Prior knowledge:
The chain is mainly alpha-helical. The protein is 57% helix and 3% strand.
Amino acid sequence: MRREPLGQSPADVEDKNPIENLRERVLKPIKERLYRPVNQLISRLGYTHCVLLLLTATGVGTVLLKAWNNPEEVKQTITVARFYIDARQLIAPRDANVATPIRDLTNQLKDASSASNRDLENGSYGPWTEAQLVVSLQGDNTISSGEMANWFESHSGTCACWRMWPATPEHLGTTAWVLLALARMGARPRVEQIDFVLHNQHVAGWWSMYPASDDPRNASTYATSFSIWALAELSRRNLIDKPQEAPVVEAISRGRTWLLDNTVDGRPGLWKDYPNGEYGEESIGVSGVALHALHRTTGPAPIINDSDWMAHLPATLPMPKEDTSSAQTVLTLQYGPSADSTHNFKLPWVLIGTVDAYSGGKISQRAHAARLFHQLDDRQDSIGNDLKGMPWLGAETLIALRYLRGDDLI
């Protein structure tokens, strides 16, 4: 026998809308099953706590939906949250765990700085490497400033400059590193040594890695950056003779202008090693050098360059030995075409450039920079082991780590 709903006649049931009938028969029991536990939860927790629970669930759901649709945005949000305290400050955080790699590299380079290494036939400890050792070990009392300055002078040769190795062309990069080391030791270079740098600047404001023709393809970002930086360090310490002071100031200004005018199109925080060369290659290592030179020389602050640098930080820190190698052929004045074999290492100059540009980034970019600094924890073993026997790279890396720590050595 068919039973009719209580209080309803068969006619009432038959006259009901079929959809309404379906809702009564199917959806009502489901609603009752859902509402009953919700009502019990509200009774148990109270209205306020349930509202908070609902808001939390909504927030989690929103984050999950964003993660599904835009994982990069969520990753950035998590980074900001994790490194928010660091990112609130406009100065790069000094709390990255760099004590161990600094200690290991310092011990390695103390041994490498032995005077006996300078006589090795392979030239690994020539003026360029020795200058880097001087800068990296400042304040350690390992190197005698007087003895080292005399050694540099004995290797300056008749050109009043320095070469990478005795049989190679006169070298502006090596010369600039030596002048930087002399500045940091408080040693005054000879007038002829400053003249060598000034006379090899070209009308447009650039330097080549070797004394070269005025062909703009010879213009080197690295040589230009280090030349103005070294001159500025000497000038800041009053180690430039009076008659040369004005020419030095002018040379620095023209070099800065050339650097600012020769960034990669649309990327003011990025440079090529040779902006006009056939094989000019975008290099974050060279770019870090250029950015630091702009920060260490007198002139308008490179605000736009800093902002672009911070907006395009790498996703992860480079490994200690990662580099790009210049392949540009320079038309030298003495030797004809000569290849620039400079290796532009990434890790030291990513760290240095990011410390310099840190205040120019948005809070999310500063948080990302802080995350990069903390990735040094994952690089400690490779820094300690992979750089053995490479004192030039060990020195650059030590300079960068000490700079991140806040040491005034560059």
